[in-house]
Specification:
The protein is of the alpha+beta class and 124 residues long. It contains three helices and seven strands, in the order ααββαβββββ. α1 runs antiparallel to α2. The longest helix is centred in the middle third of the chain and has 15 residues. It is globular and about 40 Å long.
């Protein structure tokens, strides 16, 4: 049985890891080799592709991190949750970006699919 909250927290940990080598290691442990990540801004495959999207996001939003913005809901090895991108120095400020992700775990427990949605984002 999948611990959905723990999986969502691991996912956000990868997004928040600032050290590139450590982030690649975490991504390799969490995402299946054939994992497909799709959101409004990117569609990539595999841990390396996902890590590249994360690195780009970290560069664009330096000084910010992701956090859960509510409970994690899951069933049948799929989960959904809302996240917020908040300032490292002022978590009480309104989030810069709010999104909603759906993760699907494969038989090995690694993430096999990510479907991301942006609920609120600055003009790109």
């Amino acid at each position: 049985m999948t611990d959905y909250t723990a999986l969502a927290e691991q996912y956000l940990q990868v997004w928040n890891e600032g050290d590139a080598a450590r982030r690649r290691e975490l991504a390799g442990d969490l995402f299946a080799a054939t994992c497909v990540f799709t959101d409004p801004l990117a569609s990539v495959q595999g841990p390396d592709g996902i890590e590249a999207v994360i690195a780009q996001g970290q560069q664009q939003f330096a000084g910010h991190h992701l956090r859960l913005a509510g409970p994690v809901d899951g069933h049948h090895d799929q989960l959904r949750f809302t996240w917020e991108l908040v300032s490292d120095g002022n978590e009480q400020a309104p989030p810069v970006v709010v999104g909603f992700d759906v993760l699907v775990a494969g038989p090995d427990g690694k993430i096999a699919r990510v479907l991301g949605f942006l609920d609120r984002a600055p003009a790109m």
